[in-house]
C-alpha cells in the first residue's frame, strides 16, 4: 500500500491521517508535501470549520524519515518542516489526535495543533539529541510556550518521555480519551462547526495576535474591530432572533 495522507471532509471537520504503517507514519518529503496540500484544501473548503490531524495506528508519527533526514541540509529540512508548519499556520482551528508515539518531527506536528487530545498509548518524545542532531522546526519555541521552561528542558535536554497522563497534567494535552480519538476530536470540534466560519477564523487570528501582547488594554483594542464587525453581520442577527424566540417560548 502506498504511503499517503488520507483526507476526509465530513460534517464541517477535515480529518487528515498520516497512513504509512511500515515506517510508523514517518514523514518523507512526499508525505510532508501531501500534508501541506491537504491542509490547504481544507482551508479552501468553506464547508470545513475545523481540522483534525492523526496517524494510522499504532503510531501518531515517528518523526522524519531517517533516510531523508540523513541527506538533508537546509532546503531539505525546510521541506520536511513544510508539513507540520502548514498545520501551525492553518487558519482553521486544529486538533491533533495522538494515539501513539509522537517523536521528533512527529512531536512538532502535535505541538503545531491548537489542541492535543491523547489516547492511553500516546507518548511525546523529543529524540533530537538522542540522534545527535539539534532540534528544529521551532520545537524549542513551541514546547516552552506549552509546558514552561523546566518541563521543556527535561524533554529536550534530558530526553524525558511524556506519556498520556503526564501530558494532560503538564498541559501538553487537553484530555485523555479512552475510546475513539477521532470521534472525540469531532465532538470537540462541534462548537466550531456550529459557529459562523468568518467569525471563527477571525477569532483564531485574534488569539494568535493577543498571545503576543502584554497589556490588557491593547487586547481590548485588538478585539474591538472584529467584534463590531460580527455584531453587524447577518449571522448574529439571525442567531439573536432565534435565541429571543426560544426565550419567549420558555
From TrEMBL:
InterPro entries: ClpP/crotonase-like_dom_sf, Enoyl-CoA_hydra/iso. GO terms for molecular function: catalytic activity. CDD domains: crotonase-like. It comes from the Bacteria. Pfam families: ECH_1. Belongs to the enoyl-CoA hydratase/isomerase family. This is Enoyl-CoA hydratase.
